[in-house]
């Protein structure tokens, strides 16, 4: 089942999310639906707040390179970034909750993260490169932050009319969205 993506301006995107436990209702189905939603929207990551749930859950699938190597597909439950390291690098990021807005964001290339997977196995690992960047972006979501929060005040002012249009539902996306003034339907 494809969920609508929650649009910029909805308060759920600004909440620090709550941890869950292995008894969270229908967790496997939720994860499956999140992957279906993400793939339909052509994303590489999706956090639970983006489907209206203020819980510490996100998924990542950066795909594989041309040699079908370096596939990175994981579920992160109750994730905690322990360390970010390396020289920050800029990359043009976007977000399914903020369609048609892309900006350069500085992030460190390495991340050490502790999390549970979908089978409640705990992991602690170091991730580098593009997967680390996607993890940091999705982790920000469960911390109540958006990539636009990292931008300079001047850049935010320049984007204000676009962001206002998104929050009012005056945007077309290739996937279903739910805007702040719409009633909740899932």
From TrEMBL:
Q: Which cofactors must be present for this protein to function? A: Fe(2+)
* Biological processes, Gene Ontology terms: translation
Catalysis performed (reactions): N-terminal N-formyl-L-methionyl-[peptide] + H2O = N-terminal L-methionyl-[peptide] + formate
What is the top-level taxon of the source organism? Bacteria
Cofactor, how bound (note): Binds 1 Fe(2+) ion.
Where does the record place a coiled coil? none
**Pfam entry (one):** Pep_deformylase
Q: Which InterPro entries match?
A: Peptide_deformylase, Peptide_deformylase_sf
Q: What Gene3D superfamilies has UniProt attached to this entry?
A: Peptide deformylase
What GO terms are given for molecular function? metal ion binding; peptide deformylase activity
Tell me which EC number(s) this protein carries.
3.5.1.88
Active site positions, chain numbering: 138
Question: Record's PANTHER family?
Answer: PEPTIDE DEFORMYLASE
Q: Which HAMAP family match?
A: Pep_deformylase (MF_00163)
**Family stated for the protein in its record:** Belongs to the polypeptide deformylase family.
Q: What is this protein called?
A: Peptide deformylase
Q: What is the lineage of its organism?
A: Bacteria, Pseudomonadati, Bacteroidota, Sphingobacteriia, Sphingobacteriales
